[in-house]
Amino acid sequence: MRITARHGLLGLGAAVALLAGAGGSALAAAPRTSSPHGVATFANSPTNYPTYILPIMSAAHESNVNLYELCQLLWRPLYWFGSNGSYTVNYKLSVGQAPVFSNGGRTVTVTLNHYTWSDGQPVTNRDVQFWMNEIDLTATNGDWFAYVPGGFPSDVVSASYPASKPYQFSLTFNKAYNHTWILYNELSQVWPIPQHAWDKTSASGAVGNYDRTAKGAAAVYTFLSGAAGKLPTYATNPLWKVTDGPWQLTGYVPATGYSVFKPAPNYSGPVKPKIAELIELPFTTAAAEFDSLRSGAIDYGYLPVEDYAQRSYLAAHGYQFQSWNEWGFNWFPLNFANPKVGMIFRQLYVRQALQRLIDQPAMIKGILHGIGHPTLGPVPTVPATNLISSAEDHNLYPYSVSAATHLLSSHGWAIHPGGTDSCQRPGTGASECGAGIKRGAQLNFTLQAASGFVSFNAMMAAMRSSWSRAGINVTLTFAPLVDVLAKSSGCLPPNMAGCQWQMEDWGNEGYAWTYSPDFYPTGGEIFQTGALSNFGHYHDLVNDANITATHLQQGTAAFYRYENYLAQQLPALYQPFYPFQFSEISTKLHGAMPQDPNLHITPENWTLSS
Length: 610
Hints:
Elements: H1 16-19, E1 39-43, H2 64-74, E2 80-83, E3 86-90, E4 100-102, E5 107-111, H3 125-141, E6 156-160, E7 168-173, H4 179-186, H5 195-198, H6 214-228, E8 247-253, E9 258-263, E10 277-281, H7 286-294, E11 300-303, H8 311-316, E12 319-324, E13 328-329, E14 331-332, H9 342-345, H10 348-356, H11 360-366, H12 401-409, E15 413-414, E16 422-423, E17 444-450, H13 454-469, E18 473-479, H14 481-489, E19 503-505, H15 507-510, E20 513-514, H16 524-527, H17 541-552, H18 557-569, E21 573-574, E22 581-586, E23 589-590, E24 607-608
Parallel strand pairs: 1-10, 17-18, 17-19
Antiparallel strand pairs: 2-3, 4-5, 5-7, 6-7, 8-9, 9-10, 11-22, 12-22, 13-20, 14-21, 15-16, 23-24
Helix pairs in contact: 3-6, 10-12, 17-18
């Protein structure tokens, strides 16, 4: 989904010291003013607004909006990623200084910059320890979206948080991993949270050191997640007032997600807010947002794809157009665990037939106004990177109805164009339907997609029509994004009884998987066996080994092997990749560009002119 300035990724063997050269602000710094003034409005994408405030979140709550348009405004992660239009680490905006490796590369030591919480208490290694203890619990319980079995924090075998050095901590890993991977995919997941205010088991209870035992950590998480479930209290609960970010939430409407932020008066970070108020505006449809944009009610909005021709009108009325390029790729999952059709999706030839019928070039030309390019594998191509292999340099599955029907007929399916194909030769032979597929089984699927996007609906209709030409019948349904995400994430143990969905597409939010907080595109969070964001339950031992190799080996060979395999194996279906959004930014709003490919927003950089 992204198409503007491109920047290269350092090679796998690059030292972390070299990455430190990627400093600078995440967005162009705006001139300082004597005191914050002006109210800036920012448009959320349709049906996708802040719904969860606790930084520790499950797959059901995880979204770019919750992470980067709510939590990250209030609390800062250990490391900030995003530097002048690139996705790389930005130490100038980070709580932690550059990591130092020792012990043969197994131990990493981090020194903290001297941030303070909004109540005046310092941000120390105790706050990091609090995060680690809570994450260690929630990861293994399935309550943290970023967890991969055997990955962070399970790969940390010991930790040191010395009281004599409150601004330093060390983690020792079970192996000597690639240093870049440790920084971009492990330390990137550390988020100091206020132990002195949150380490409690009830609202009226005293703060203690409960997190230092498994039982206590569980009680703390139960309390915190319970508070996060009370949306009407988001702007008033004292828990959420203890922050170390540049903003505080002062208004929130649960029914719509309408959110109001004001500058945190005691923010200790390097860039202080310059506007007096930030309002995040929710919309039910892209058309409703566009109406507000045309009226001038939005400072930072987006142009729906179907209204692309209106760019000149908006330019004449005080807006500048800017594509928002994202560090990710575009896919949607098939449910390999579905008891009815999962065995069909497990057949590679079926996935190949489905992919052969997604006419990405035609969609880009006819629906996306020629802006975008096909997704050919799991590694982002924008911003530019040296990690693109030969398999992602060309389309392994170009559009072809005849090729798709041949794949199906040669594996025992009776083809019924415009109808529904059925299995005529059950069995596991080379010319038979495959394991678990009975005679008479049909290529009849349901696909639930996110609502609110006219252009996205058109893409769904185009895919359905193409599939139908080969006798693959797909019934489309639409629902708000939060409902679609909840449905697909409901297929995780121990809730397998809710594993009835078959195909899911997440619309504007899910058009691309954004590689964050794992910024190094190894795919472990989404395609490794057992990963909590592996919504489709894809399971492949070769792929698991390939992913592990990218964590350990220097150079690009392991990366190429990983992506070549998944480009061919289709762990999900790939679809056109285009900008996260076509932003329209008021000429009165300064400091919002370049936009961050990690989808972070930094309104503390913004100013408003009259």
